[in-house]
Amino acid sequence: QVQLVESGGGLVQPGGSLTLSCASSGRIFSIYSMGWYRQAPGKQRELVASITSGGSTNYADSVKGRFTVSRDNAKNTVYLQMNSLKPEDTAVYYCNARNILTLKDYWGQGTQVTVSS
Questions:
Q1: β-pairing, 111-115 with 10-12?
Q2: HSE on the CB side for 51, CA within 13 Å?
Q3: Residues with Cβ < 8 Å from 94, sequence gap 6 or more?
Q4: How many CA atoms lie within 13 Å of 70's alpha carbon, on the beta-carbon side?
Q5: pLDDT score, position 44
């Protein structure tokens, strides 16, 4: 069983920055592909960014050049650095871990990010 705990959300002005963290309790963090998803009110959950166990990354077009996903396998933690934030980035952000052997997904509880002046 894997538990994911997100932190770092909050209220920020447009153009500001936030860094989200997701700590995993998984025994072998390196076998998990990690991702960040978000869900705005009335919208479907969407992939924001993902990073494989080997460090390959993928981003939604809407965040390319502004967000950076990274992971520290020694700390069992994945990060999402968010720069140049826009009001449309406002959403609940969820951490996801996918076991690359079983393809089972695990989710964090979510952290609210609000971009507003």
A1: parallel
A2: 19
A3: 6, 36, 37, 38, 39, 45, 107, 108, 109, 110
A4: 8
A5: 97
For the chain (117 residues), the mean pLDDT of every run of 10, in chain order, is 93 98 83 94 96 94 98 93 98 95 93 97
User: Hey, CA dihedral for 34, 107, 88, 14, is it positive or negative?
Assistant: negative
89 residue type, one letter: D
| DSSP, residue by residue, 65-108 | TTEEEEEETTTTEEEEEE-S--GGG-EEEEEEEEETTT--EEE-
- Check residue 29 and give its pLDDT: 74
Give the pLDDT score at 111.
97
